User: Fold Oxygen-independent coproporphyrinogen-III oxidase-like protein YqeR from bioreactor metagenome.
Amino acid sequence: MQAWKTYSNAYGRRLMEEISQCTGSERVYDTIFVGGGNPGSLTPEQLASLLRSAQKHGKSREVTIEMNPETFGEHFFPLFSDGLVNRMSMGIQSMDDQLLKRLGRNASRSDNLRAITLANSARKRYGIELNFDLMVCLPGQTLQMAINDIHEVLSLADAHHISLYCLTVEEGTELARAVGMQELAVLDEDGQAEMLKGIWGELSLLGFSHYEVSNFCKHEKFCEHNLRYWNISPFLGLGSSAASTLIGKEGWYHYTQTQDLRQFSSSALFSGYEREDLSLVQSVEEYLMMALRTKWGIEKQLLENRYGLAFDKTFSSLLGTLDSSWYFDTAQNFSLSEIGFLLLDEILLRFVMQIPEPLDRPNPL
Assistant:
């Protein structure tokens, strides 16, 4: 515990200084997202200091903080009462103890019940928006179990946003071992598709709009911060494992923070951020990958203005290879239907193969 306190204090000091230097030009950030890992591992006082620094030139329109159920408590409520945070995203994942154990989660069903109820209390007191993350298509999980999770969460909290993620079995984990030994069965693509269609249909009946492959909301309560990712708008990421997407005179580029928590805590300011410059073709690929995930899809005029690609001229032959039930095509946008969402990887690959290379104009600002 003492070692973690030492690291967290050093981590907070460096992050605070980097935030201060980045906000020194009277910049007001539209959105802020405190997440990745478990921000609840920091104290409310540390988080408040970081958020005040990030908003010292003006309040951000949306400030989201991620919380894990096992570390969330009422001691974090001052973040909401002081207006530093107006949206919370909680990683529930499952309401089943056995599934939580298989996922290697630290939280139990009882932790989830307590945290969801407490989150709803914060919503009632301070008017914050709530999102809950749930995992689906898990080994041993039925469609009805997944639907029951959604209903139970929504019976405890008035959430306007739900994020659903399918399981990715990572090498070297206990879950990967169990799957490899055939102790657990993972759904095949057809099985996943059937479960997802059932879950998506249930969310629609509950009044949720499917606005991105993994995200659903009521009353257009989109996650504005994530919209910046999907729209390929510039964003700045600070801290261990953070990522940024920025634009300069030569085009788009990424920064990735490669240091782990201990390295970040003990290293010089702005060290460990590695830059990757994107070619115009890479920028187009990234835009297509993100845009096709959303219900708005590809904005044809943006594609031409930003990347010099006329959609109808470039992709007209491709559309002839797609089933008409997979997409919607208008003069302004090309987007995927829910059937298309299920085939996203295949459709994206076809689009990428159609990009002319090299493109003959620089990446415009």
Notes: The chain has 15 helices and 13 strands. The chain has two domains: 61-229, 278-365.
